[in-house]
Amino acid sequence: MILPDGSFPWPDGYRAAASFTFDVDAESCVLVNDPGASSRMSLMGHQAYGPRVGTPRLLRLLERQDIRATFFVPGYTAECYPDIVRAIVDGGHEIAHHGYLHEPMQGVDESTEAGYLDRGLEALARVGASPVGYRAPWWEMNWHTPRLLADRGFRYDSSLLDDDVPYRLASSGPGSASLIEIPVDWALDDWEQYAFYPGWTGSGVIEDPQKALRMWGLEARARHAEGGCFVLTNHPFLSGRPAKAHALEQLIEQTKDLEGMWVTTLQEIAAHAESVCGSARVPERISEVPA
Ligand SMILES: [Zn+2]
């Protein structure tokens, strides 16, 4: 539901929302494309830094700032680092689903994708987590994905890039089961700012954290002014490093200072959206591409 003035009905006392989210990809996003990368000691360490050093630093930061966040954890990360998953839960944060081995979903058929989802769910269940939220690896959704999520009882997804506020998404046709979509934005992902590893990823440029702070701060203020939803995606192997974490803490302070900004988990935003979003948006797939 959108109010007559075009704004989203946030809970009383709030005019916009912000959520700080962390994708704990660790080694999974490297190994899924190249299992042989396990032989690269330095690259594996670069990724393991996320759960080993970055996430504990970020948990301390979040505790200092007294906010709760959402952590998307691939099943393989949960198997390799069960203690850090428990530390995230102990900090009062949300654990959500992010594939098993961070599988690329582009072009994947429904039964294969269902297998990835279930394997991820089983791995998270073994560390005591039962997620209600999902984020597709690389934010790559297929047209059948919402149905797979609804079938498994997920309440929200945060992978699509087609709005500034949450909405109700039909899992298939009209009248089908629905879930809440909380959209994301590549401009609000630390990968684009900081990721660089020779022979694996990135442009070779690692941006100044003050530049990222400036850019994301402007996004937070603009979304606050419009009554929107600011969803930042960070990776502990990147933003868990000292200067980047320092800039992130400044951003959190600035965001908390915006009057009426609701800083919370995606699960809380989804629960509110469920209570105010009316009819579901049916995904419209282009059936015929002009020659
Ligand atoms: Zn990821």
UniProtKB/TrEMBL annotation:
**GO biological process: one example:** carbohydrate metabolic process
GO terms of molecular function: hydrolase activity, acting on carbon-nitrogen (but not peptide) bonds
- Where is each NodB homology domain found? 40-264
Please indicate which superkingdom the organism of origin belongs to: Bacteria
The UniProt entry, under Pfam families, shows:
Polysacc_deac_1
Gene3D superfamilies of this UniProt entry?
Glycoside hydrolase/deacetylase
Q: Which InterPro entries match?
A: Glyco_hydro/deAcase_b/a-brl, NODB_dom, PgdA-like
Q: Which PANTHER family match?
A: POLYSACCHARIDE DEACETYLASE FAMILY PROTEIN (AFU_ORTHOLOGUE AFUA_6G05030)
Entry protein name: Polysaccharide deacetylase
Q: Which organism is it from?
A: Halopolyspora algeriensis
